[in-house]
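Practice problem 4.
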């Protein structure tokens, strides 16, 4: 599965290099443009951009104008990433069609969390699982209505509501790395530390339940120092 491509529009070369490192560390593709005209050309040449990070202060015209221009042509999500931190600036950014607004300076963890949230929200409305009731993978079936999991032998496997949310996230993006930070947010939504092992424990419990069938294939792969992947194709279907 292709990685989500992120376009960053900013004339600050140093910041472009920093953001490039942040997003590539989390398995996104990165491209950049340094003014509004270049941004339009880049979007024309790359029709698969999943999200745009946009500065307000650009050399040829302001980012608010650019956001309006993009929004007139495309529904691609936009996050402003700017030093303009006044409330009126934030309101103007959102009114221009932005999905979120982050002020500089920012931390990697916050930027990635905001990107993940916006992508999750926008992709869910276009998701193949929209209006579907079952997710089928490697012989397993997850009922998306009553949150029940069935093994390839048809056995009902008991899972908690937390395990359901975790499995739902994995099957929503099969063969894509789900980072530990996102899993921790799914588990609790609370602040966490780099030493927090609750994500690993939750994955371990879910992995055991997914190997209760006669086939001992490991469906959840550990991606070292990053997170986890569901190694399977997923088909979303409606109830018969």
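Answer key:
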């Amino acid at each position: 599965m292709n990685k989500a491509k992120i376009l960053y529009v900013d004339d600050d070369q140093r910041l472009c290099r920093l953001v490039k490192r942040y997003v590539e560390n989390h398995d996104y593709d990165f491209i950049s443009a340094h003014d509004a005209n270049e941004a339009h050309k880049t979007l024309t040449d790359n029709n698969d951009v999943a999200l745009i990070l946009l500065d307000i202060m650009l050399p040829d015209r302001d980012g608010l104008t650019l956001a309006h221009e993009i929004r007139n042509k495309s529904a691609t999500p936009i996050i402003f990433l700017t030093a303009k931190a006044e409330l009126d600036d934030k309101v103007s950014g959102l009114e221009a069609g932005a999905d979120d607004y982050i002020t500089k300076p920012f931390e990697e963890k916050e930027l990635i969390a905001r990107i993940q949230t916006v992508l999750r929200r926008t992709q869910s409305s276009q998701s193949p699982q929209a209006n579907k009731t079952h997710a089928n993978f490697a012989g397993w079936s997850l009922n998306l209505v009553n949150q029940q999991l069935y093994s390839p032998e048809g056995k009902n496997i008991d899972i908690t509501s937390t395990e359901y949310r975790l499995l739902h996230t994995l099957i929503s993006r099969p063969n894509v790395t789900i980072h530990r930070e996102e899993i921790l947010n799914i588990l609790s939504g609370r602040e966490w530390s780099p030493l927090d092992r609750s994500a690993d424990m939750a994955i371990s419990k879910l992995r055991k339940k997914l190997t209760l069938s006669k086939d001992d294939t490991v469906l959840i792969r550990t991606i070292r120092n990053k997170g986890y992947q569901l190694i399977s194709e997923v088909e979303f279907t409606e109830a018969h």
